[in-house]
Amino acid sequence: MKKTVLIFFLFISSFAMAEFNPFASELINISLNGPNEPNYLPAPGYWLGDEMFNKPEKALGAPLGGGTGTPNNNSVVSLGGFGGQIVLAFDHDVEDNPANHLGLDAIVFSNAFYYGGLLYINYHWSEPATIEIMPEMNDNNTPGDDPCEIWFVIPGSNLPDGSSWRTRHWDSNDDFYPQFYGWPDDYNTAAFELFPNYKVFDPLLLLVNPNIEDSDPCNDNLEGFWGYAEYSPTLILGDRNVDDFNDSFGDCPDMPAELFYTIPDNPFVVGIDAGSGGGDAFDIAWAVDPCTWQPANLQSFRYIRLTTAVDRYGFYSELSPEIDAVADVRPYGDINGDNIVDYIDLDLLSQAWLSEWPQEEFNPAADFIVDNKIDFHDYGKFAIGFKP
Questions:
Q1: 192 CA to centre of own chain
Q2: Which residue of 39, 82, 91, 312 sits 20 to 30 Å from the alpha carbon of 364, by its own alpha carbon?
Q3: What CATH homologous superfamily does 1-21+333-388 map to?
Q4: Which range, of 1-15, 131-145, 183-197, averages the lowest pLDDT?
Q5: Radius of gyration of the chain from Cα atoms?
Q6: d(Cα 145, Cα 342) in Å, to the nearest integer?
Q7: In the chain, which segments carry CATH 1.10.1330.10?
């Protein structure tokens, strides 16, 4: 890519970071362990003894994707066994915005990958976590201190009601009990349990799309599982054509993370959409009240809780979700990454008008339909979010 394009992208990235941070930016204290690691409550697990995986601050900021077949573990934190969790906060309210790409509102990134890479996209090395969200109601940035500040569940595809909720007791006699941080002698974790009959291919633990195993060949391109963290891979920055490289046709390796990782993949369709950064996207409108299991009708959320949802130990460790980042979805038309669509974005669109990759004028953030050119099709998407 030419130097002028790189300078242009760096300008956009600096502007976006100064004005708007689309990524979760704060850890919320939930630990039983006091001052040792107050922002983190994993359940016991093998990987918690490895410093690469036990730093909760790695879940903040932008992800570091590795691609569909080789995850990047340099920026993830493990949640440990069943019920292990982390709570993150944004510095703003993530809104239920119909102008967002696909109508989705947030994305959870992890180190999930396809077993066999792009050749086997129905076979996920996946260690799912449930997603819960909480609104901020009284603007004091303290979660849970208002009667309406409770955790609302994203039920996804496999939680029809609250009957799967259960607790697990841990004590120092457990095989995977961590021998660090000065953990208490015993404690409980709790979660909605997903997939108690998790399909096992020892020594691997894989989640297989059930649609390829049923009798209906017409649904093979649809995902059977959605609405959970750590199911879909996180792409390499700038890999806009989903080939696990960021230096091939249409790719933009200099694209800021604030722009690349804020476009969601369609969670209902097998594979990863071109132009998205991968990860597991969800709609705030999916949230339900954990007591009634009725729609929560939330307009926004500030806090997100991710919890290990599978209680399974395999050949050499537990199923432990590794969380990389959580992002707000960028609405259609937002080209400079400030979460609004206005005349600044219109000017950027005009600068890129009728350009194609890899021309200097081409701006991938304005290529909303991902066909490597900027034209009236992109303008149609721009108009969805434009608020003069």
A1: 19
A2: 91
A3: Dockerin domain (1.10.1330.10)
A4: 1-15
A5: 21
A6: 36
A7: 1-21+333-388
